[in-house]
TrEMBL record:
GO biological process terms held by the UniProt record: dimethylallyl diphosphate biosynthetic process; isopentenyl diphosphate biosynthetic process, methylerythritol 4-phosphate pathway; terpenoid biosynthetic process
Catalytic residue list: E127 (proton donor)
Binding sites annotated in the UniProt record for [4Fe-4S] cluster: C12, C97, C190
Organism expressing this protein natively: Candidatus Saganbacteria bacterium CG08_land_8_20_14_0_20_45_16
Identification of the protein by name: 4-hydroxy-3-methylbut-2-enyl diphosphate reductase
Amino acid sequence: MEVFLAKQAGFCEGVERAYRIALEQTRSGQQVFMLGNLVHNRQVIEKFKNADVITVKSVSEIPQATKGILLISAHGVPPEIYQEAKAKGLGVVDTTCPWVKKAQKIAQEFAKEGRTVVIVGDQGHTEVKGLLGWSNGKGKVIENAEDIKNITGNKIGVLAQTTQSKAHFQQIVSALKQKFENVKAQDTICSATSKRQEAAVDLARQVNLMLVIGDTMSANTKRLTELCSQTGTETHQIQTVSELEKSWLAGKAKVGLTSGASTPNWVIQKVINSLKNQA
Ligand code: SF4
């Protein structure tokens, strides 16, 4: 059995950056609070927990006048979070990925132009909640073309959660243009996501089995799994090596691997080692 790793796997530049900044803060001597999950990966979250970082679901959980730092995750937050942290006297260390920042700015500009801000993304995802906040009450989230029936307004601004697939976004933009006359579209999908998706699909077409390594919380991992499955190659998503099933490997000459943008290299390496031991 041969094992192939996709050209783009492991942390993306945005996650790498957030991870590095957060690690620096754990050495600052101050109490660090993490708002939500820094990235959607349980192994990374555990690592910060072991470094005494306290995860909170909201700023209100932190007592008034607590000395410390609030870490904003790579997925970004709505604008009011910065005000809430300031009011509590917390320092803010912002690891929002620059690609997400760009999408937030576009959402804000669309809202200022009086547009209904259509966000193509996963309902309830942290990044999407942040984008809704920057849309200043004018945001609507849609997951597929069917949801367009819920969109109203004369002027539309449409953008994407950074980890959507380009084909899906373009399909929704075309459908919006058929229904509305004034549609301004901005493709805010990050290049790390599109390159990773292209590399994964490319590899999936050349192997007999595709394994996508990443947390079930991770939107971009879910998307990779969908795209690899669509090639017709048997595809499974696993979070760690412990979820790898021997039966999948029977009769498979070529096994391809890819990972979500928030999957650490050490998790990928364990899967590679296990596959090589079974080869
Ligand atoms: S997947 Fe893209 S948007 Fe998300 S953290 Fe990585 S580089 Fe940033």
